Amino acid sequence: MSSEETAAPSKAAPDDDGMTWWYRWLCKIAGVLGGISCAVSGVWNCVTVNPLNIAAGVWMVLNAFVLFLCEVPFCCQFIEFANAIAARADKLKPWQKALFYCGMALFPVFLSFSFTTLFGNAIAFATGVLYGLASLGKKGDAVTYARLQHQKQGDEERMAGTANGAPE
């Protein structure tokens, strides 16, 4: 038995995080658009003499590289470890990705606050927000909510009846 045959059954399904297929694609597309906007704005931000703007621009280009590496690793085929990093990023929970992407997007804004850094990182930050919303989970259905409300009203009536001294 080869090592690939033994490793195949132990792979975890990436669908266990509760995200639907269209929301997963929306997050990936937002990550790609965020990477493009970070790259373009980062290069534009580097065309200056202010060292903080240059540092923020370099960080934004690094953000773009990380977004491409995590969301669309086929764009980085020339890097040997791209698939390993993408597989590790896919194993992260949505709240971890949200924290990572939002933190990466906020750092250049704090480093050099300008329109270029603000709007260049907005889509990358929005990608983090989308992953953060995914970590909240799916919305409940109306039947379950109505049943819960009915049960809650019954409990409140029962508690009001015992508080007034009335026997049950």
Q: What labels would you give this structure?
A:
168 residues; mainly alpha; 8 helices; disordered N terminus
Sheet/helix structural class: mainly alpha
N-to-C order of helices and strands: HHHHHHHH
% residues in beta strands: under 5%
- Kindly state the percentage of residues in helix: over 70%
Distance between the termini: 68 Å
Broad shape = elongated
Low-pLDDT segments: 1-15
Return Rg in Å. 23 Å
What's the overall average pLDDT, rounded? 82
InterPro entries: TVP18/Ca-channel_flower
Keywords: Membrane, Transmembrane, Transmembrane helix
Main location: membrane
Family: Belongs to the calcium channel flower family.
3D architecture notes:
The protein has 168 residues and is mainly alpha-helical. The protein has one domain. The chain is built from eight helices and no strands. The radius of gyration is 23 Å and the shape is elongated. The N and C termini lie far apart (68 Å). The N terminus is likely disordered. This is Calcium channel flower.
